[in-house]
Amino acid sequence: MQNDDRPDKSAESNRQGFLSTLLQGLIRDTIGLWITFLFGTGAAAVVCLYFGIPLIFSLLGGVIVLAVYVAWDRL
Fold first, then answer.
1. Dihedral sign from CA coordinates of 75, 22, 41, 63
2. What is the spatial distance between Cα 65 and Cα 42, in angstroms, rounded to a whole number?
3. What is the pLDDT of residues 32-57, one digit of tens each?
4. In this predicted model, what pLDDT tens digit does every residue of 61-73 receive, in sequence order?
5. C-alpha R_g of the chain
6. Helix (H, G, I), strand (E, B) or coil at 74
7. The whole model's pTM is what?
């Protein structure tokens, strides 16, 4: 039997706080952006190796893919 003097707080104790929700979103978004950047850099590295272009330009491919991903996500 529930005590009338103390309200039931079981539903509130399961909620996440503001800081933990913010950190969880930041980690999720950061990992998604890194995976996108690494995918673009890897694909550009393969193209650079195929055509004999210096690999430093593969970073440009990662930045381009990241920019397209962010622009597409914000639409």
1. positive
2. 11
3. 999 999 999 999 999 999 999 999 99
4. 999 999 999 899 8
5. 23
6. coil
7. 0.69
Residue with tokens 């005590």: 3
Locate 28 and state its tokens: 């999720």
Query: Which amino acid would we find at residue 43?
Result: A
| Placement of tokens 């381009």 in the chain | 64
- Residue 44 and residue 57 in contact, taking contact as beta carbons nearer than 8 Å: yes
Amino acid identity at 5: D
Closest CA to 22 of 34, 30, 33, 14: 30
Of the listed ranges 8-12, 20-24, 53-57, 58-62, the least confidently predicted one is 8-12
Q: How far apart are CA 61 and CA 71, in angstroms?
A: 15
